[in-house]
Design goal:
Number of strands: 24
Shape: globular
Order of helices and strands: EEEEEEEEHEEEEEEEEEEEEEEEE
Strand order of the largest sheet: 7-8-9-10-24-20-19-14-15
Structural class: mainly beta
Low-confidence stretches: 165-189
Amino acid sequence: MMNITIQNEFASVTCRTLGAELLSYKTAAGKEYMWQKDPAYWAKTSPVLFPYIGAVPETVTIHGVDYKIPRHGFVKDAEFEVAEKGDDYVILSTGTNDYTTSVYPYDFRFTVTFRLDQAKLVVTYGVENKSDKEMPFLIGGHPAFFCPLHEGEKQSEYCLGFRNGQGKVPEALVNTVFGEGGVVTTQKKEYKLYENLKARTVKLISSRTEKGIQFDFPGYESVAFWTPIKKDAPFLCIEPWCGGTIDQVSCTDMLQKKYVQYLSAGQARDYVFAFKPC
């Protein structure tokens, strides 16, 4: 395992080969935006979710056969190789091995690309089906951002703003999702998920300063938000998903999950999200 840093005149980004996990995004002025692991709250920063999303009480079913795929899949625990690197980008790669074939009966290649485009970090998950049969999977990101972002701010001052097709922020979709105890959600769940959005952009901003981050997820069908509500944790995860909905959490039949993805034999597809300070 090793850490890798890419940078340009606007920002620097650090990831690691274990799990291709994003660890840090800092502006040129040194401002950190990514949650820095703290076991008291959450000991991760940005796990990669593949080929499954969600809890797994026992097994995941694929075409009637049960497999012991771990919670949120196994890519987050895989050691990646550095396939290519430049000053402002890096491509990490992993694929099939003895362990993956024991829990997921497909031959695949999975890449994670981190690329800086001025101040924007573009994250691309690439999936290639190297099997001779159709391959189903779920895929998503789980990046955590400091919230609040600046000293003297309160988490309860932050809100989520969604854009419609005309690029405006409709008042009805500017939702204050925080309270003093954390994310306010229905049924007292920690997750809040949005789907069927006209445009896949959301801003996490302070209602007082209107500054924060802009998060784009064009390659995903839905986006979830999570923070451990009973811990008053100072971060929020913005999670682009192709992998079921909140009401399907208890369902572990992969093919029944809404937004399950399929690749034909030999087919490949990219899934992109990006963010920048705003």
